Amino acid sequence: MPSGRLPVVNPWRFETSQATVQLKVGPYYTKVWTRAIDAWNAKKVFRFKVVASSAQITIVPAQSNEATLIKQNLVGVAEVRHDSTRRIVSVQLHLGNSQLNKNGYTTSQRVNVAEHELGHAMGLAHNPSKHSVMYKSTRYVSIQPVDVKNVKELYSIPAKQYFIDSPAAAANTISKDRVTASSR
Ligand SMILES: [Zn+2]
């Protein structure tokens, strides 16, 4: 990348500033994620629409990868699949219950981590500033004006300008971006 300030958005996003979300977690984490979704929706820069069946964003419990989460002390993970046209194809998010418990995260702090992971789902990258929900090991900070501004700017670019719809780009492979929030 060119020198200068670090990018705070990734080079991918959804087609428009909205996406469907399916919650596949139990009652407690449904409450946590719903609070995070409501907090983002209240900013009116992106619309997360909760649906009952297959969605663009799926929120799953940490189960199969629990050992990895514990080993790496991860409290949240976002897997964003995107294609070479810069479109997000699908997103899977989860919170690491064991590590959140072990590190004594309150419910509000878990909501902050969920807001961080939803930030990745929209296309935000990490922000080097601690005064951003996208700080890499966010815990105490919720959505800040800078975060709202970054989402707004990302989705203010017309789709025609933003996406690469050349025939070369159409023949793409889907790559996976794995990002984490840590308690450290
Ligand atoms: Zn992150």
UniProtKB/TrEMBL annotation:
Domain of life, per lineage: Bacteria
Pfam families listed in its UniProt record: Peptidase_M10
UniProt entry keywords in alphabetical sequence: Hydrolase, Metal-binding, Protease, Zinc
GO terms classed as biological process: proteolysis
Domain Peptidase M10 metallopeptidase: 30-155
InterPro entries, sorted: MetalloPept_cat_dom_sf (IPR024079), Pept_M10_metallopeptidase (IPR001818), Pept_M10A (IPR021190)
Protein name per UniProt: Peptidase M10
GO cellular component, one term: extracellular matrix
Organism: Secundilactobacillus pentosiphilus
Gene Ontology molecular functions: metalloendopeptidase activity; zinc ion binding
